[in-house]
Amino acid sequence: MFVKILRSFLAVLAGVVFGVGLTLATDFAMHRSGIFPTTGQPMSGGLFVLATVYRTIFGIAGAWLIAWLAPVRPMLLVMIAGAIGFLVSLAGTILTWNSGPEFGPHWYPIALVILAFPQSWFGAKLQEWLAGSGSRLPA
Question: pTM of the prediction?
Fold first, then answer.
């Protein structure tokens, strides 16, 4: 029992670290390459669309990893990670709401809050589909 709980915790941790790590690395690369302006400077709405797209893809990938690693109840574990993402995004939205244009248009943090659960669900469903097609690696 303890081993399954530990493996479940580690699966969620791995998926969250994976998704957040990809996001931070991409943010860094976008700023360093000049695609995004210097940190703290305002960014165009189109660039926030780009950031929303890759953050959603990375969220799906993190959820897929959780479902793939989960020893039991992958959808529950993925939704726990979705709840974490929802709460972190909601806190970020509240804390930065009127903090200036460098935090982007108001639709951006709202989109991150709204997408937290659907991207998690989709990542778990993707793993179910892949597992059904026989593509899951042995655990």
Answer: 0.91
